[in-house]
Amino acid sequence: MNRVIEWFARNSVAANLLMLVVVVAGALAIPTIKKEVFPEISSDMVSVSVPYPGATPAEVEESICTRIEEATQGISGIKRITSTAVENGGTVMIELIPGQDLRTVLDEVKTAVDAITTFPEEAEAPVVQEVKRTTQVVNVAVSGPAEELALKRLGEQVRDEISNLPGITLVELTNVRPYEISIEVSEQALRRFGMTFDEVARAVRRASLDLPGGTVKTRGGEVLVRTKGQAYRAPEFAALVVRTLPDGTRLRVGDLATVVDGFADSDLTARFDGEPAVLVEVYRVGNQSALEVSDAVTRYVEEAQPRMPAGIKLTTWMDESVVLRGRLGLLLRNGRLGIILVFLSLALFLRPSLAFWVTMGIPVSFLGAMWLIPAVGLSINLISLFAFIVVLGIVVDDAIVVGENIYTHRARGKTPIEAAIDGAKEVSMPVVFAVLTTIAAFYPLLAVDGNMGKVMKQIPMVVILTLIFSLLESLFVLPAHLAHLRQRDGGMPESAGGGGVRRSWYRFQDAFSAGMTRLVERSYRPSLRWATERRYLTFAVGIAALLLVLGLVAGGHLRFTFFPAVEADNVVAVLTMPQGTSVERTSAAIRRIE
């Protein structure tokens, strides 16, 4: 260690090259780092969903959920199975033991579920899939005084246009009812023509399809034969032939039923600012940047608004990137303020150039951490930015110790290179262990398992990376810079100083230093001597203070909350009406809340 410190101190070009590599690599890595509001983690969960139309929750529990539980409970790697039975279907959530291979367990669960042969005939095919957490960035509300069909088509247009924007791949249309074509068969018409409901249903299934017919070889080549009969709209369904009468008359669906081209019969409505609306949700996936996604959507809304029909408004809503921008701004403000305060504090005791090089350890350490963040699988998010804010007050400590000790050796009359080498060597071991103890304090957060551990690991990883680069900068780069300080900067007599402003600042420094020395000699040193001479009393006071704090916690006087309750930026009202309440009454109550 000492030989490496001496070599870098004597070879300033190598030290500057090391600092330049860290700074340039960190600056180049920043644009490539994934920027997200919250760290994207794997849920370690598998879901099994089985639609069962027309079934009650009790029937779903007995015939769906229980049988899935029995089939999957013996699979290795499963920690917990949770079932939810609702009307028309059930869902089983399977939580894995941390560290298990998700793909292996997923395949075993799918095999076990596919082997179940006792599901009701009316139940649809089970869907087995990994529970993925998608990160929503921003919503676009399409609202205005328009009919439901017109709003949905406008929402689909907005969805398609946003999904075609560069850097955006996942966009969903929500708060809308799905399209549905309903065929309402008339009982009187069935009796009049002597037909049954099943006959009409079979005719629709038989006629509404596209059927491949193979190929026909000709001299000019092969011709693909295909029958296109799939119906998509109400007139097409109404024209389907159900039966051909003996006189050649064709009996069509429209003669027996009323075909309605509309929406599914569900009580779903949405309003935005008091007007009917649909919502377009925009997500960030992969390495996409939440900030870039939000900016692209905002620009699209500004560009597309003039193209919308009269009365239709496009509004960005619940932009989660605002929180990320705020945290980034907080980090930059704290960083600027921290650099200024560190420089001013050091300048009160040390020379300005020495204080400058010590302060440079902050941006160098941060850029070094940015360089390696993509390599360890981290991103810029609320948690990692919080870690940078936490380490901001720690990162410069080792540089202060090394710089102050070099300054002390320079004040003893040593040459700049001798002072840099001796000063750095003298405190190298304490500085290394100071950094290691700080790393040890954050390291246990890496051992937290589960989803919480995946989120919390962002903090120790950022802190550890930043402290490592801070240690490298303070022991290998800083001594080389301080080895070239001018005479006064090294602690030589004031007569070696420069002009009047510098000489006045040096006088102020000397006066401030003298005042601090008097404070140490008259207050701190006597107090320290008194405490060390009565070491048992001092030790007892420390133990008493520790017991007092533990008593406050154990007695409930110091409240504990895992996550503190903080004010949000929005208010949510949830209205629960008695079972069977009509849609009209519920809508009237919601309008009162609005």
Topology diagram in text:
Layout: H1 2-10, H2 12-29, E1 45-51, H3 57-72, E2 78-86, E3 89-96, H4 102-114, E4 127-130, E5 135-143, H5 148-163, E6 170-174, E7 179-185, H6 187-193, H7 197-207, E8 210-218, E9 221-228, H8 234-238, E10 241-244, E11 250-252, H9 253-256, E12 257-263, E13 271-272, E14 275-284, H10 290-304, E15 313-317, H11 321-349, H12 352-359, H13 361-372, H14 382-392, H15 397-411, H16 416-442, H17 450-456, H18 458-482, H19 500-533, H20 535-554, H21 583-593
Antiparallel strand pairs: 1-3, 1-4, 2-3, 5-14, 5-15, 6-14, 7-12, 8-9, 10-11, 13-14
Task: Walk me through what this model shows.
It contains 21 helices and 15 strands. It has 594 residues and is α+β, with helices and mostly antiparallel strands. The strands form five sheets. Strands 5, 6, 13, 14 and 15 form a five-stranded antiparallel sheet that branches. Strands 2-3-1-4 form a four-stranded antiparallel sheet, with helices on one face. A hairpin with a 2-residue loop joins strand 8 and strand 9 (221-228). Helix 1 packs across helix 16 (416-442), helix 2 runs antiparallel to helix 18 (458-482) and helix 11 packs antiparallel against helix 12. It is elongated and about 125 Å long. The model is unreliable at 487-497 (pLDDT under 50).
